[in-house]
Predict the 3D structure of the following.
Amino acid sequence: MNRRLFIKGSLATFALAAVPDISIASAPPLKSLPSIDYSKEIILKNCNIIDMVKSGFIEKGSIKFANGKIVALGASPMDETNAEVIDLGGAYVTPGLIDAHCHTTASPVFGTSLWQIPKILREGLRQYTLCIESGITTVRDPGAFAPMLHDNIKKIEKGELIGPRVVYCNSILNLNGSHPDIKATDISMFADLVKPLIGMIPANFETMDDLKEALEENARGASFIKLTVDNKSVFCRSGNIPVYSDDHLREIFNYAEKHNLPVACHHHRKWGFDRITRYPIHSLEHMIGDAYLSDHEIKNLVRRKIAIVPTLTVAQSFLLDEAYADGVPKKFRTDFIMNEVAVRKNYIKNEAPNHFDADILQSTVDEIKYYKTLGWDHLIENKKYLVNPDLYFGIMLYAPKNLQRMRDAGVLIGCGIDAGMPYTFFGGQYREYEILSRLGFKNEEILRCATINNARILKMEDRIGSLAAGKLADIAVYSKNPLKKIEALRRPMMVFKEGKLLHCLTGALEETVG
């Protein structure tokens, strides 16, 4: 994560309690969808089925599902007696996509005002719906305001909110003063008051007893543990930040082994990579921005079965060339990076307003001015918690070669954008697919990262990530072939989650149900 994690939830709760006539945001209104009789079997016919496991492609195939699970699929005609039949007219079908790294209760902004908080809360609920509208039926949340998250999950389960299933860790199990290295009270004097209501994204433990308590608290429904392992800040701050002691790590990994909880680790620095890869971790989150990895180090990832979720989109989002008084430093001015700078600017100007409130987005864009008006060295003292762009330009300098070599060596690579961080908006998950494409990944490889690879990282490959009899009927339908054009993933025609149609473009099902 790369920002002041506490502010939005803390201030939002305080504002709603203190300001008259502001009520808790309600879920976005449920969209009208075509009527389908779910008591019958559902058949999607005349579709091109993309198989992410066997690399197969079933032309003019059919998929039958009932009670939330796939019953059968193949090229042979199916018995349509007493079934709801949807003729997809040659559309392309993939498994429901998976986002393996996003923060569903975080608000992706740098700056805001008190009066924008109701909008922020509404956008926070809309984030779940945007996942579905992007073809994403499962997300992995590696750090949340836990009570808020659990409330949102209940809304999804009750059908009050359209959203994906959420795999989560509750809070990040970080040491006080480590990443994110700011105090909640630095952002809001009311942070300690609202903590019992909404929780905090970082656990911020201090003593060994605190750590043990945090481990037990986070175990509530959690599917994994999240650590942060760097020794330097992501903000414009010099010096080192605190890191786990060997005793801390021993306690954490003993607990993880006892409770069969995978451990995921935020890292941006080679120092953190070197230290944490000696432990039995499950995945690395993000990429490092200060070194190329050796062949031995990459082979060790394969040998230790350590996966990586690169989240290149969040690095692209912080390619803030506006922060430099004299322009982007020469060492970062590669063709790839400068093209990504241009892509970022185009996204923020022309696409991000579709994914987040335009007024709040502008407030976030306006914060960039402080790099120059205050100067990098004075941001922290003025409580402007802006990231150090050098780090993210560094990630985009080293990541292409590191990631390509990981792929070639057989490292399990997942897909996520760190949505919930500034400029990384839900609904823009396609940005990661397209960055990988520009790095030379084949479309089939990208789809694997977003489906079966992510399912394996979530340890859910027996239920999701591919289309097969017995698996959950999580299905995304596209008008164009994403194996030929990765941009096809931007706008699914329909999305089914556990066999229920949750998203359908206007007219996509006209006269097809019968």
Summary: Residues 1-24 have pLDDT under 50 and may be disordered. Residues 212 and 251 are 8 Å apart (CA to CA).
